[in-house]
Amino acid sequence: MYTLAKLLKMLLTKNWQRRFERLIWTMVVFYPIVVSAHTVSGTISDAVTGEKLPGAMILWGNNGIVSNAYGFYSATVKDNSVTFSYSYMGFDKKVLSVSLHTDTVINVSLQPLSYGLKEVTVSGNKSMTANAMGTQKIDIGTIKKIPAVAGETDVLRSLQSLPGVAVANEGTNSFSVRGGSYAQNLIILDEAVLYNPNHALSFISTFNPDAVQSAEIIKSAFPAKYGSRLSSVVNVQMRDGNNQEYKVNGGIGLISSRLSVEGPLKRGESSFIVSGRYSYAGQIANLVSGLNSIANIPELYNLRSGNEVNFYDFNGKANFKLNDRNRIYLSLYSGKDHFYLKCFSDNYSMDWGNNAAVLRLNSILSPRLFTNTTLACSNYSYSYYLKADARNFLWEAGMTNLQFRTDAEHSLTDKLMAKYGLTAGYLHISPGTVTPYNRESVIKASSLQKRNSVEVAAYAEGSFSLNSSLSIKAGMRLAMSSSLKSQLPVQPDDFSSSMSFYPAKTYWQPEPRLLVNYSLTELSSLKMSYSKMHQNLHLLSNSNVGMPTDMWTSADSKIKPESSDQMSIGYYRDSRNNMFDSFVEVYYKKMNGVVDFIDNADIFMNGDLSSQIKAGISRSYGIELFVHKKTGRVKGWLSYTLSKTWNNIDGINNNLSYPAAFDKRHNLRLILYCDLSPKYTLSASFAYASGSNLTVPTGTFEYYGASFNYYSSRNGYKVPPFHEMNVSLTRRSSTKRKWRSEWIFAINNIYNRHNVFSIYTRSDEHYLAKAKTSMLYLYGILPSVTYNFTF
Known about the structure:
The chain is mainly β. The chain contains 6 helices and 49 strands.
C-alpha cells in the first residue's frame, strides 16, 4: 500500500500536476488557470486529542471552504498577503495572517472551548461557504445532550429530530426521509454499508456513541460520489482516537453498559480506539416482570418473564502515519442481537448481526490534490427460530457486500473545485434457507437460489464560483449494475466444483446532479437543486418496524431497479450575531419502480418473488422549516415538516392511488438544552407526528364455520398521532479531577402517552371463530438513570 502511494506521487510530479490542471480546466470551462495564484493546504485537528476535524470552516476575504471528511483543506488564493480564519463548532477560532510567495502548508490545531467562554462569532460570506443543500450534520457532543430513551444516547434517533426525517414506526430507529421507505436510506459507517443499523428490534441503533465523532444526513442535492439509494445518505464517522494520551471512558445504564479505550500508537502521529457495549435488556424485563407480580401495575400487565433480549457491539479503529502525505486507516465493527420478548411474540425468537471491515489510504498527492482509496467489506446475517409449533424450523438469510472505491478532491483554481472517482462493488444475497430444528419438525430442508450482482460507477463533479454571489455545483454519476445468475454444478452432489456466473440483466444508469447557490446578502442565500438516483436493492417487508425477517432482493430481469427525480428550492439565512441559522426548503420527489405486495401475498420461501409484488410510481412533496439557536445559555432547534406521499401502482388498491405507509402529514420536533452551571445541564424534547398508514382488518365474516377477515383499502387506516415529551438532567463532576464522571437522570414520555407501536390481529380467546384486533404500545412513563465516567 505504501509502495502504491509512492508510485502515485512519482507519477504526479509537479510538471505533470500542472499539465493535468490545465487540461481539466480547458475541458471544463475553456478558460486558462490563474498562474499567479498560490495554494494553501493542510489539516485541521483537535489540539487536545489530535483527531482531525471534518467540516471545519476556513474563511479569507469573501471566500470560504470547509475541510473534508479527513480534516484536509486546500485553498487557492490570488493575493500575496491574506488572513485566514479557522473555526469549528465548540472550538476556539484561530486567525492567521500569512505572506505567500509559493504554495504553503498550514496545519492548524484548534482548542476546545471551555464552559463559560464566550462563543465565537465567525464573519465572512458564510452563505457562499456552505455550498450544500439538504445536508445537516450533528456532532457527538450535541447528540449526547438530546434526551434518550432509557438513557441510551442514540445517533439515529438524533437525526429523527431534523426536518424531512420521519420515524417509520414510533419507538423505533427505522426512519423515512421525504416519503421514502427506510430501505431507501444508505447507512454508512466509515464508508462501510450497514443494512440493518439497529439493535433490540430497532429500539437502539448500532452506533456506540463513545466511538462516534459525528453523523451527517443528506436528503437532496446529493454529491455525485453517492448512489445506490433514493432517499438519503447517512454518513457516520468513527473517532480516530486520542493521539496525545491514553483515555478510558464508559457508562452503566438501565439496559446496557459500555467501555472504551483509546490512545496513541505513536504520540502525535498515530492512534487507536476500541469500544464495546453489551445489553442485558431481557434480564431487566424479567426483573420488572417479577416486581410487577408483587406491585400489580396495570401499565405492565402484558410484560411476562422468560424474556431473552441482549446484544453486543464492538468498534475498533487505528490510523497509521506513513509520512507527511500518506495515512492508513483501519476500521472494524461487529454486532449481534438475540431477541425473544414474550409480550411481542411467544412463538419465535430472532437473531441478526452486522460485521464490517474498512481499509483506507489517504494521500495528499499535491497541495491541490487529495485522494482517498477504500476497500470495504460488510456482512449482514439474520434468522428466526419458530417454536411452539409443529413446524419447528430455523430460517436463515444474509448478504455480503465487497466494495472498492477511490475518490479525489482537486482544487484546480481559486474558483473551481473538482471531485471525481470510481467505485466497484459485488453483492451476494442468500434469500433464505429453512432447516428443521429437531426431529419432531414436519418441515423439510429447502433453500432459495442465491442472488449475486455487481455495480460499477464513475463520477465527476465540479464546484464553480461565477462571481461573489453565484456558484454552481454540477456532476454526473454513471453506474452500471448487472445481476448474476448462478449456474449449479452438473452433478447435484458435486459441491466441490466451483459455481460459475453469467449476466442475467444489465442496467445503465446515468445520474445527473445540479446545485445552484445564489447569495442574496452576506447572510442569506437561495439554493436550487436537482438529483437523479437509482437503487438496485428492494426490501420486501409487511411492517414499518424494520424486522430482521424482512427480505432483501436485488434487481434482475423481472424486478427492475427503482429510480427517483428530486427537485428542491430553499431559502437559507444566518443571523448577524451568529446566534441563529434557519432555512425553509420545498421539495418534490417522484420515484419509479417502487414495489408493493399484491393482496394476500406469500413471500416466505417463494422462489418467484416477482409474482407477489407490483411496481409503480410514488410521489412526495413537502415543505421543511428549521430554526437553530447556536449560542447563548439555552440552545436547540425547532423543525417542522408538512408533506404528502402517495402511490400509484397498477394492480393494487383497484388501480387507485393510495397513501404510502410513510405518509405523515405533520412532523414537529423541538430540542432544547441549557447549561445551568458548569456541573448541570437540563435538556428537553417534544415530538408530534401524524400516525402511520396501515392496512388492517375492519371486520370478520364466517363461511361454513370458518372465520375470515375483510380489510380496509390499502393503507386506509390512520394510526392515532404520536406525541411525547422527554426531559433529562446531567450532573458532572469537576473537570479538574483525573477521574471525571456524570450522572444522567431522564424521564421519557413524561405525561404517560400511550403511543401505538403496532396493530395485530389474533383469534378471540372466548370465541376462536372470530378475530380480534389489538393495539400494542411499548411503554408509558419511563424513568432511567445512567452513570458515565472518563479517566
